[in-house]
């Protein structure tokens, strides 16, 4: 039969777009814990919950227990590889901490996820020393941000002391003892002078922050320009629709207006005097002119660099989990 004159209805694109991830529904992911019985008490859940995000037993069981099991496998594999490498070079070697990076937008729940994961990972026999360092401490002091005219861009990549953060992560990865990280106060909205977090050769270090997955700019002539994520062994991106994050940001802002902002020494004390309507308006302004811009320009583009993506829906409930294929 002749095909001449006929128009073929043919779409050259693949039926399924290629992806480096395998995506699991909540129920599919939950099944992967396969009998792991690590538990957190009610008191633990209260202690680990965020200002507006309440962690419950279902979230721990369905989402975080499988993650802790997976990371446990990665840690054990890394330990075996390190042992094999030192044997290959015929010399002993210091313990190399396993570093986990957690990234995502303001108000998406990074800190809560990091705290829960730290608590669970420390309960595995192979790695009971787990430290957590937020990268807020590596923000430039307010005085320096004001000098540079970028105080309004706090949280953007240029507002961080990237060289200091890189040295910190590199020193931890090199197995050095008593590596110090600066501390940031959300109460004073600034770095706390003379206060430090000391990291002393843990089994696992969790580094949590907005821009931790951002790559370095490509160098000329192929020189090495390392960035923080180059030292990560595993990375997680906490994801959600920006409209949802906006709701969470406003809710958190209103809660702070009723709590921390009411202290006269708080940097944001002036906001405690706002009416509810004024507070909502101010929160939306801050979100849409600063944090949403940072999310779209700098944070969201790093999502595909993560090993694991947790996609949240209403009430901070993780709905899907995407794991990068090996």
* pLDDT < 50 runs, ≥5 residues: none
Average residue pLDDT? 91
Q: How many distinct folded domains?
A: 1
Q: Architecture, according to CATH?
A: 3-Layer(aba) Sandwich
Distance between the termini: 47 Å
CATH topology: Rossmann fold
Q: Which CATH C-level class is it? A: Alpha Beta
Q: Could you give a short account of the major beta sheet?
A: 7 strands, mixed
What topology emerges from the helices and strands here?
Blueprint lengths: L20 E5 H6 L10 H7 L8 H32 L9 E7 L5 H12 L8 E5 L7 H7 L13 H12 L5 E7 L4 E10 L4 E5 L25 E6 L2 H17 L17 H24 L8 E5 L5 E7 L2
Parallel strand pairs: 2-6, 2-7, 3-6, 7-8
Antiparallel strand pairs: 1-9, 4-5, 8-9
How would you explain this protein's 3D organization?
This protein has helices spanning 26-31, 42-48, 57-88, 110-121, 142-148, 162-173, 242-258, 276-299; strands at 21-25, 98-104, 130-134, 179-185, 190-199, 204-208, 234-239, 308-312, 318-324. The mean pLDDT is 91. Helices cover 36% and strands 17% of the residues. It is globular, with a radius of gyration of 22 Å. The protein has 326 residues and is of the alpha/beta class. It is built from eight helices and nine strands. Strands 1-9-8-7-2-6-3 form a seven-stranded mixed sheet. Strands 4-5 form a two-stranded antiparallel sheet. It has one domain: P-loop containing nucleotide triphosphate hydrolases (Rossmann fold, 3-Layer(aba) Sandwich).
